[in-house]
Amino acid sequence: xxxxxxxxxxxKAKYRQAVESVESKKEERFHDTVEEYYNFSxxxxxxxxxxxxxxxxxxxxxxxxxxKTN
Length: 70
Hints:
Blueprint: H1 2-20, H2 23-43, H3 50-69
């Protein structure tokens, strides 16, 4: 369970980093967050953090979509 918790904390940290990044780094860091979500969800498909992880993923996807339209 410690590995799962650590993997989730890494996902959250990547998301926070993306949100708080300077504009020139945001797109790259939201991509990193999405990639980390895929790793997490593949490794721990039945995680107790599944819903929050999915929320992070969906928000990151939306941020990337908005950035592409601007």
